[in-house]
Write a structure and sequence with these properties.
Length: 417
């Protein structure tokens, strides 16, 4: 049975008024270890990760474990975990774990290490992102890696017969596209937000195969190569002025409006570019390999909290949720891109994922740019990166000064560890 909780505070209030005869929740936020029919766990995640009632009922039938769902905004999950941990309380047994939270959650001791088979380790495409010091802290359920998209019609009109294979070719082709009438052919996020930081990360990673040194400092050559590329793009006026101030998603969506001809971005645009509700260029945009030997993923995962009193049942839920069969179901019901290579291949091969282009080939290039795992100070480092990028985009910093600003901020963070 699925018991859906929209607000943890609301639940706490309800429990306070129904303390007698109600074992669903208590006012501390801890879930009881048993329900009337067996074990019970709580699952806290954003709306895009919530299975259907029928799917959760099937899990209960298979295992005897009931699931209480707490649907929480993505931005609120970290805060709720931190607040609960301060009081040594358990906010949920199973929680959403974003790729960028791994280092922080590991340092805080909020996640219970998971055990999985060697075969599963091989099958999960982005497991390294959630592995720190040889401990698996969460299992990925939704994939999102970086591939490229090009408008083949616009390229052909500009006299370009092949997709670019290097960033130097991207730059050359973009200038030809601009001359052919596409005012701002490159869609890039340069606003002061997270997508600008991750954009610089994957550009450096794709260009040089490295972003950070083993000691946690920036690899200066790689970052400078990416920043100099950005400057060349800006000097040639190849990105729209609004890309410097609008959200990253708005910048990406220009590939769908036809105002941009080339994008390195999320895998979701495989379907978005072909959906008439989202795209004005259906049939024109093809997913291709990014100009790289490696590509970066930004996946979502599920983990078991270290404060859970139902760890065994919680791990069973995580294993069920991320199983091959459920990945197929969740692709259909939630649109989640499978994180298992076997499932991704099956859905591409049978046509379930249409217009796949280079998706499979690109998935084999996924690697983590973090030599020691995502650091606990990721949020502060990312902020320094995207603010410097935005200043450069607005003409306030040169690439050299942008690097100095980012690097000095990172050096300070490293000294504080």
């Amino acid at each position: 049975m699925k018991k859906k909780i929209v607000s943890m505070l609301l639940v706490a209030a309800m429990v306070a008024s129904m303390a007698v005869g109600c074992g669903s929740k208590n006012d501390s936020g801890n879930s009881d270890t048993k329900s009337d029919k067996g074990e019970s766990i709580t699952f806290m995640a954003p709306d895009w990760a919530i299975p259907s009632d029928d799917q959760l009922d099937e899990f209960t039938k298979e295992t005897g474990i009931e699931v209480e769902v707490s649907e929480v905004g993505w931005d609120d999950i970290r805060e709720k975990l931190a607040t609960a941990a301060t009081g040594n309380k358990n906010v949920a047994d199973v929680v959403e774990v974003d790729w960028s939270w791994v280092g922080e959650f590991k340092a805080a001791g909020w996640l219970e290490p998971l055990k999985i088979s060697d075969a599963d380790k091989e099958d999960f495409l982005t497991l390294d992102t959630f592995t720190v010091d040889d401990e698996i802290l969460a299992l990925p359920y939704s994939n999102d890696y970086r591939i490229a998209y090009y408008n083949k019609d616009q390229f052909a009109k500009a006299g370009i017969n092949e997709a670019p294979k290097t960033y130097a070719e991207v730059l050359e082709d973009a200038k030809a596209l601009k001359a052919s009438g596409v005012d701002y052919p490159l869609a890039m996020s340069m606003n002061a937000e997270e997508k600008a930081a991750t954009g610089l990360m994957w550009t450096a990673f794709q260009m040089d195969g490295v972003v950070w040194n083993d000691d946690g400092t920036f690899n200066k050559d790689a970052i400078m190569d990416a920043l100099n590329y950005y400057q060349e793009v800006l000097d040639a006026d190849l990105v729209a002025p609004e890309d410097k101030t609008a959200s990253g998603m708005e910048a990406y969506m220009r590939i769908c409006s036809g105002t941009a001809s080339f994008l390195v971005g999320p895998t979701m645009f495989v379907s978005k570019t072909q959906n008439p509700d989202d795209s004005a260029v259906v049939g024109q945009v093809e997913p291709i390999l990014a100009p790289a030997k490696k590509t970066m993923a930004l996946p979502e995962a599920l983990g078991v909290t270290s404060t859970s009193e139902n760890k065994e049942a919680a791990q069973k839920f995580v294993e069920w949720y991320t199983s091959a069969d459920m990945q197929k179901e969740l692709n259909e019901t939630l649109g989640s891109l499978p994180t298992r290579s076997s499932v991704l291949k099956e859905l591409v091969d049978d046509g379930t994922i249409a217009n796949a282009g280079a998706m499979l080939e690109a998935s084999e290039l996924i690697a983590s740019p973090f030599p020691n795992g995502v650091p606990a100070y990721y949020a502060e480092m990312s902020s320094a990166m995207y603010n410097a990028i935005n200043k450069m985009a607005l003409g306030e910093l040169t690439p050299e000064k942008a690097y100095e600003e980012m690097s000095s901020a990172l050096d300070k963070l490293l000294k504080e560890q």
